[in-house]
């Protein structure tokens, strides 16, 4: 999977891979593999990067042209993502078995994602998003910046 928008954002800000790696708290080689799509870019790190660039995860994954900033929940954990997935699956009236079939995995494997026992790979999140029109910004606890009330 290619993450061209992520590279474009980095280069548009005249940043080097080592600088972004430092922001994300990883080695440059790890970040380089994520950017190239050699390995899955963890969704938690994508959220951190989206916040850093004042944009949103869906834009960075090339799922939308809308690059407006989304404010994400502070604690994006495997458990949080799992709860959000379950919440949206139930909202759609789907079973774990149906989601697992789309992902070509066993239902028991999918249940680990929802239970927060295993991180769902980003490519599988994208597949669910495209299949069921699930907004990844929602799964990551995001709210559009203009929808957030300003406290005086």
Write structural notes for this entry.
The protein is mainly α. α2 packs across α3 and α7 (96-103) crosses α8. A two-stranded antiparallel ribbon has the order 1-2. It has two domains: 4-71, lambda repressor-like DNA-binding domains (434 Repressor (Amino-terminal Domain), Orthogonal Bundle); 78-142, 434 Repressor (Amino-terminal Domain). Residues 147-152 have low confidence and may be disordered. It is built from ten helices and two strands, in the order αααααβαααααβ. The chain has helices at residues 4-12, 17-24, 28-36, 43-52, 57-60, 78-92, 96-103, 107-114, 122-132, 136-139, and strands spanning 70-71, 143-144. Helices cover 57% and strands 3% of the residues.
Helix % is: 55-70%
**What is the N-to-C succession of helices and strands?**
HHHHHEHHHHHE
Can you identify the CATH superfamily of the largest domain? lambda repressor-like DNA-binding domains
- Tell me the total number of β-strands: 2
Cα separation of the termini: 44 Å
Main sheet strand line-up: 1-2
The assigned CATH architecture of the largest domain is: Orthogonal Bundle
CATH topology of the largest domain: 434 Repressor (Amino-terminal Domain)
Overall morphology: globular
Mean pLDDT: 90
Q: Low-confidence stretches at least 5 residues in length (pLDDT < 50)?
A: 147-152
Helix- and strand-based class? Answer: mainly alpha
Strand and helix layout:
Elements: H1 4-12, H2 17-24, H3 28-36, H4 43-52, H5 57-60, E1 70-71, H6 78-92, H7 96-103, H8 107-114, H9 122-132, H10 136-139, E2 143-144
Antiparallel strand pairs: 1-2
Helix pairs in contact: 2-3, 7-8
């Amino acid at each position: 999977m290619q993450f061209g928008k992520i590279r474009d954002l980095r280069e548009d800000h005249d940043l080097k891979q080592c600088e972004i790696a430092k922001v994300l708290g990883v080695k440059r080689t790890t970040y380089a593999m994520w950017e190239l799509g050699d390995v899955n870019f963890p969704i938690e790190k994508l959220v951190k990067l989206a916040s850093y660039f004042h944009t949103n995860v869906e834009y960075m994954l090339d799922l939308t042209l809308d690059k407006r900033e989304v404010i994400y929940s502070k604690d994006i954990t495997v458990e949080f993502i799992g709860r959000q997935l379950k919440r949206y699956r139930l909202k759609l009236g789907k079973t774990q078995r149906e989601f697992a079939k789309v992902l070509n995995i066993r239902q028991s494997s999918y249940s680990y994602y929802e239970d927060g026992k295993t991180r769902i790979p980003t490519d599988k999140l994208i597949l669910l998003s495209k299949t069921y029109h699930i907004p990844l910004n929602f799964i990551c606890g995001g709210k559009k910046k203009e929808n957030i009330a300003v406290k005086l």
